[in-house]
Protein backbone atom coordinates (compact mmCIF):
# COMPACT_ATOMS: atom_id res chain seq x y z
CA UNK A 1 0.00 0.00 0.00
CA UNK A 2 0.58 3.65 0.04
CA UNK A 3 2.41 5.45 2.81
CA UNK A 4 0.15 7.54 5.09
CA UNK A 5 0.79 11.29 4.96
CA UNK A 6 1.30 13.06 8.29
CA UNK A 7 -0.20 16.55 8.29
CA UNK A 8 2.30 19.28 9.17
CA UNK A 9 0.17 22.44 8.90
CA UNK A 10 -0.80 24.64 11.85
CA UNK A 11 -3.96 22.70 12.49
CA UNK A 12 -2.32 19.32 12.07
CA UNK A 13 -1.42 16.69 14.63
CA UNK A 14 2.17 17.79 15.10
CA UNK A 15 1.16 21.25 16.20
CA UNK A 16 -1.72 20.10 18.39
CA UNK A 17 0.34 17.41 20.15
CA UNK A 18 4.06 18.36 20.38
CA UNK A 19 6.51 15.48 20.31
CA UNK A 20 8.51 14.46 23.47
CA UNK A 21 11.83 16.10 22.41
CA UNK A 22 10.22 19.45 21.81
CA UNK A 23 11.39 22.79 23.23
CA UNK A 24 11.71 22.57 27.03
CA UNK A 25 13.03 26.11 27.16
CA UNK A 26 9.66 27.59 26.19
CA UNK A 27 7.88 25.45 28.73
CA UNK A 28 10.26 26.61 31.50
CA UNK A 29 9.89 30.21 30.36
CA UNK A 30 6.13 29.98 30.67
CA UNK A 31 6.44 28.49 34.14
CA UNK A 32 8.81 31.22 35.32
CA UNK A 33 6.47 33.92 34.01
CA UNK A 34 3.40 32.41 35.63
CA UNK A 35 1.52 34.54 38.19
CA UNK A 36 2.45 32.14 41.00
CA UNK A 37 6.15 32.48 40.19
CA UNK A 38 6.00 36.29 40.14
CA UNK A 39 4.12 36.41 43.47
CA UNK A 40 6.63 34.06 45.10
CA UNK A 41 9.49 36.24 43.88
CA UNK A 42 7.80 39.38 45.19
CA UNK A 43 7.20 37.75 48.58
CA UNK A 44 10.86 36.79 48.76
CA UNK A 45 11.94 40.37 47.97
CA UNK A 46 9.53 41.76 50.58
CA UNK A 47 10.89 39.35 53.21
CA UNK A 48 14.46 40.39 52.45
CA UNK A 49 13.54 44.08 52.59
CA UNK A 50 11.81 43.60 55.94
CA UNK A 51 14.78 41.71 57.37
CA UNK A 52 17.17 44.45 56.20
CA UNK A 53 14.95 47.14 57.74
CA UNK A 54 14.85 45.32 61.08
CA UNK A 55 18.63 44.93 61.15
CA UNK A 56 19.11 48.60 60.26
CA UNK A 57 16.77 49.66 63.05
CA UNK A 58 18.66 47.51 65.58
CA UNK A 59 21.98 49.04 64.50
CA UNK A 60 20.59 52.56 64.83
CA UNK A 61 19.21 51.84 68.30
CA UNK A 62 22.56 50.44 69.44
CA UNK A 63 24.39 53.48 68.07
CA UNK A 64 21.99 55.86 69.84
CA UNK A 65 22.40 53.98 73.13
CA UNK A 66 26.17 54.06 72.81
CA UNK A 67 26.10 57.79 72.10
CA UNK A 68 23.98 58.42 75.22
CA UNK A 69 26.36 56.37 77.36
CA UNK A 70 29.38 58.24 76.02
CA UNK A 71 27.71 61.57 76.78
CA UNK A 72 26.93 60.44 80.33
CA UNK A 73 30.53 59.31 80.83
CA UNK A 74 31.74 62.73 79.74
CA UNK A 75 29.37 64.46 82.18
CA UNK A 76 30.60 62.30 85.06
CA UNK A 77 34.21 62.99 84.19
CA UNK A 78 33.57 66.74 84.26
CA UNK A 79 31.86 66.44 87.67
CA UNK A 80 34.74 64.34 88.97
CA UNK A 81 37.33 66.87 87.81
CA UNK A 82 35.39 69.75 89.40
CA UNK A 83 35.15 67.92 92.72
CA UNK A 84 38.81 67.00 92.62
CA UNK A 85 39.84 70.60 91.96
CA UNK A 86 37.65 71.87 94.78
CA UNK A 87 38.99 69.40 97.31
CA UNK A 88 42.57 70.10 96.25
CA UNK A 89 42.04 73.78 96.97
CA UNK A 90 40.38 73.02 100.30
CA UNK A 91 43.22 70.78 101.36
CA UNK A 92 45.69 73.55 100.58
CA UNK A 93 43.57 76.01 102.58
CA UNK A 94 43.21 78.43 99.67
CA UNK A 95 39.46 78.50 99.06
CA UNK A 96 37.59 81.30 100.84
CA UNK A 97 33.91 81.58 101.54
CA UNK A 98 33.19 83.25 98.21
CA UNK A 99 35.64 81.23 96.14
CA UNK A 100 38.44 83.81 96.47
CA UNK A 101 41.90 82.93 97.74
CA UNK A 102 42.13 83.87 101.42
CA UNK A 103 43.50 82.56 104.69
CA UNK A 104 44.09 78.80 104.93
CA UNK A 105 40.94 76.88 105.88
CA UNK A 106 41.06 73.18 106.68
CA UNK A 107 38.04 71.19 105.42
CA UNK A 108 36.11 69.24 108.00
CA UNK A 109 36.46 65.47 108.19
CA UNK A 110 32.80 65.13 107.18
CA UNK A 111 33.31 67.21 104.02
CA UNK A 112 36.27 65.10 102.98
CA UNK A 113 34.36 61.88 103.66
CA UNK A 114 31.36 63.05 101.63
CA UNK A 115 33.60 63.99 98.74
CA UNK A 116 35.32 60.60 98.81
CA UNK A 117 31.96 58.81 98.76
CA UNK A 118 30.78 60.89 95.80
CA UNK A 119 34.07 60.32 94.01
CA UNK A 120 33.86 56.55 94.48
CA UNK A 121 30.26 56.47 93.25
CA UNK A 122 31.17 58.53 90.19
CA UNK A 123 34.11 56.24 89.46
CA UNK A 124 31.97 53.10 89.73
CA UNK A 125 29.35 54.69 87.48
CA UNK A 126 31.98 55.55 84.90
CA UNK A 127 33.36 52.02 85.03
CA UNK A 128 29.88 50.58 84.60
CA UNK A 129 29.07 52.74 81.58
CA UNK A 130 32.38 51.86 79.97
CA UNK A 131 31.85 48.12 80.41
CA UNK A 132 33.75 47.64 83.69
CA UNK A 133 31.98 46.37 86.79
CA UNK A 134 33.36 45.09 90.10
CA UNK A 135 32.47 43.57 93.43
CA UNK A 136 34.31 43.13 96.69
CA UNK A 137 35.65 39.73 97.69
CA UNK A 138 37.04 38.48 101.01
CA UNK A 139 40.59 39.17 99.91
CA UNK A 140 40.18 42.03 97.47
CA UNK A 141 38.03 42.88 94.46
CA UNK A 142 36.91 41.12 91.29
CA UNK A 143 36.40 43.10 88.06
CA UNK A 144 34.45 42.14 84.94
CA UNK A 145 35.44 43.88 81.69
CA UNK A 146 32.77 43.57 78.99
CA UNK A 147 33.87 44.22 75.41
CA UNK A 148 31.93 45.43 72.40
CA UNK A 149 32.46 46.56 68.82
CA UNK A 150 30.18 49.02 67.00
CA UNK A 151 27.41 48.47 69.54
CA UNK A 152 27.65 44.67 69.44
CA UNK A 153 28.56 43.16 72.82
CA UNK A 154 31.14 40.40 72.50
CA UNK A 155 33.21 38.76 75.28
CA UNK A 156 33.62 39.40 79.00
CA UNK A 157 36.92 39.01 80.83
CA UNK A 158 37.47 38.67 84.57
CA UNK A 159 40.26 39.95 86.80
CA UNK A 160 40.61 39.29 90.53
CA UNK A 161 42.93 41.54 92.54
CA UNK A 162 44.28 41.03 96.06
CA UNK A 163 44.71 44.22 98.08
CA UNK A 164 46.93 43.04 100.97
CA UNK A 165 49.77 43.35 101.66
CA UNK A 166 49.88 45.13 98.29
CA UNK A 167 47.70 45.22 95.21
CA UNK A 168 48.46 42.28 92.92
CA UNK A 169 46.73 40.10 90.34
CA UNK A 170 45.45 36.84 91.82
CA UNK A 171 43.80 35.25 88.77
CA UNK A 172 42.26 36.34 85.48
CA UNK A 173 40.80 35.24 82.13
CA UNK A 174 42.69 37.80 80.01
CA UNK A 175 44.24 36.15 76.90
CA UNK A 176 47.95 35.41 77.28
CA UNK A 177 48.91 37.59 74.31
CA UNK A 178 47.52 40.76 75.97
CA UNK A 179 50.47 42.54 77.72
CA UNK A 180 48.85 42.35 81.16
CA UNK A 181 52.10 42.12 83.15
CA UNK A 182 53.49 45.26 81.56
CA UNK A 183 50.27 47.17 82.30
CA UNK A 184 50.36 46.00 85.91
CA UNK A 185 53.97 47.13 86.24
CA UNK A 186 53.15 50.58 84.89
CA UNK A 187 49.87 51.34 86.68
CA UNK A 188 48.63 48.77 89.21
CA UNK A 189 50.43 50.09 92.30
CA UNK A 190 49.92 53.79 91.57
CA UNK A 191 46.74 54.26 89.54
CA UNK A 192 44.29 51.35 89.35
CA UNK A 193 41.82 53.47 87.36
CA UNK A 194 44.35 53.93 84.55
CA UNK A 195 45.26 50.24 84.77
CA UNK A 196 41.66 49.15 84.18
CA UNK A 197 41.15 51.76 81.46
CA UNK A 198 44.25 50.69 79.50
CA UNK A 199 43.38 47.00 79.90
CA UNK A 200 39.84 47.69 78.66
CA UNK A 201 41.21 49.56 75.62
CA UNK A 202 43.48 46.63 74.73
CA UNK A 203 40.69 44.06 75.10
CA UNK A 204 38.13 46.08 73.11
CA UNK A 205 40.62 46.69 70.31
CA UNK A 206 41.51 42.99 70.20
CA UNK A 207 37.90 41.77 69.99
CA UNK A 208 37.20 44.50 67.42
CA UNK A 209 39.99 43.25 65.14
CA UNK A 210 38.91 39.64 65.66
CA UNK A 211 35.26 40.53 64.96
CA UNK A 212 36.18 42.17 61.66
CA UNK A 213 38.20 39.14 60.54
CA UNK A 214 35.38 36.77 61.53
CA UNK A 215 32.80 38.87 59.65
CA UNK A 216 35.01 38.89 56.57
CA UNK A 217 35.35 35.11 56.53
CA UNK A 218 31.68 34.54 57.31
CA UNK A 219 30.11 36.88 54.76
CA UNK A 220 32.77 37.32 52.04
CA UNK A 221 34.46 33.91 51.86
CA UNK A 222 33.83 33.75 48.09
CA UNK A 223 36.05 36.78 47.63
CA UNK A 224 38.91 35.41 49.76
CA UNK A 225 41.44 32.89 48.48
CA UNK A 226 41.75 30.08 50.98
CA UNK A 227 41.90 30.95 54.67
CA UNK A 228 42.66 34.40 55.97
CA UNK A 229 46.04 34.33 57.73
CA UNK A 230 46.07 35.98 61.17
CA UNK A 231 47.99 35.70 64.42
CA UNK A 232 46.51 35.24 67.89
CA UNK A 233 46.40 38.96 68.65
CA UNK A 234 44.78 39.64 65.24
CA UNK A 235 47.14 42.56 64.68
CA UNK A 236 48.50 41.06 61.46
CA UNK A 237 46.21 39.91 58.63
CA UNK A 238 47.33 38.63 55.23
CA UNK A 239 45.12 37.34 52.39
CA UNK A 240 44.40 37.43 48.65
CA UNK A 241 41.04 38.71 47.47
CA UNK A 242 38.91 39.92 44.59
CA UNK A 243 36.08 42.45 44.41
CA UNK A 244 33.54 40.26 42.59
CA UNK A 245 31.77 37.15 43.86
CA UNK A 246 31.62 35.91 40.26
CA UNK A 247 35.37 36.11 39.70
CA UNK A 248 37.50 32.98 40.07
CA UNK A 249 40.78 34.88 40.26
CA UNK A 250 42.20 36.79 43.22
CA UNK A 251 44.27 39.65 41.81
CA UNK A 252 44.87 41.57 45.07
CA UNK A 253 47.12 40.74 48.00
CA UNK A 254 46.77 42.71 51.25
CA UNK A 255 48.83 42.91 54.43
CA UNK A 256 47.27 44.74 57.38
CA UNK A 257 49.39 45.62 60.41
CA UNK A 258 47.78 47.04 63.56
CA UNK A 259 50.74 48.75 65.22
CA UNK A 260 48.57 50.38 67.89
CA UNK A 261 47.23 47.53 70.02
CA UNK A 262 44.54 49.85 71.43
CA UNK A 263 43.11 50.48 67.95
CA UNK A 264 40.87 48.36 65.71
CA UNK A 265 42.00 50.02 62.46
CA UNK A 266 45.36 49.22 60.82
CA UNK A 267 48.33 51.56 61.04
CA UNK A 268 50.03 50.05 58.00
CA UNK A 269 48.30 48.79 54.84
CA UNK A 270 50.00 47.23 51.82
CA UNK A 271 47.79 46.26 48.86
CA UNK A 272 49.55 44.86 45.81
CA UNK A 273 48.56 43.00 42.67
CA UNK A 274 49.38 39.32 42.47
CA UNK A 275 51.77 38.21 39.67
CA UNK A 276 50.06 38.05 36.31
CA UNK A 277 47.36 40.60 37.14
CA UNK A 278 46.63 43.40 34.66
CA UNK A 279 48.71 46.53 35.25
CA UNK A 280 45.51 48.62 35.16
CA UNK A 281 44.61 47.27 38.62
CA UNK A 282 47.43 49.21 40.30
CA UNK A 283 45.22 52.29 40.69
CA UNK A 284 42.44 50.18 42.19
CA UNK A 285 44.90 48.68 44.69
CA UNK A 286 45.88 52.18 45.84
CA UNK A 287 42.22 53.10 46.40
CA UNK A 288 41.65 49.91 48.39
CA UNK A 289 44.68 50.70 50.57
CA UNK A 290 43.16 54.05 51.56
CA UNK A 291 39.78 52.44 52.26
CA UNK A 292 41.23 49.76 54.57
CA UNK A 293 42.83 52.50 56.68
CA UNK A 294 39.56 54.34 57.24
CA UNK A 295 36.78 51.76 57.68
CA UNK A 296 36.30 48.35 59.24
CA UNK A 297 37.49 45.42 57.14
CA UNK A 298 34.09 43.83 56.51
CA UNK A 299 32.57 47.24 55.69
CA UNK A 300 35.24 47.79 53.04
CA UNK A 301 34.21 44.54 51.35
CA UNK A 302 30.57 45.53 51.68
CA UNK A 303 31.36 48.67 49.69
CA UNK A 304 33.04 46.49 47.03
CA UNK A 305 29.82 44.47 46.70
CA UNK A 306 27.67 47.60 46.52
CA UNK A 307 29.88 49.07 43.80
CA UNK A 308 29.63 45.81 41.83
CA UNK A 309 25.81 45.84 42.01
CA UNK A 310 25.65 49.45 40.85
UniProtKB/TrEMBL annotation:
Residues 42-93 form a coiled coil. InterPro entries: CENP-O (IPR018464). It is found in: Chromosome, Centromere; Nucleus. Its main location: nucleus. It comes from the Eukaryota. Keywords: Centromere, Chromosome, Coiled coil, Nucleus. The keyword Ion transport does not apply. One of its GO terms (cellular component) is nucleus. Pfam families: CENP-O (PF09496). Belongs to the CENP-O/MCM21 family. This is Centromere protein O. It comes from Nyctiprogne leucopyga. The gene is Cenpo.
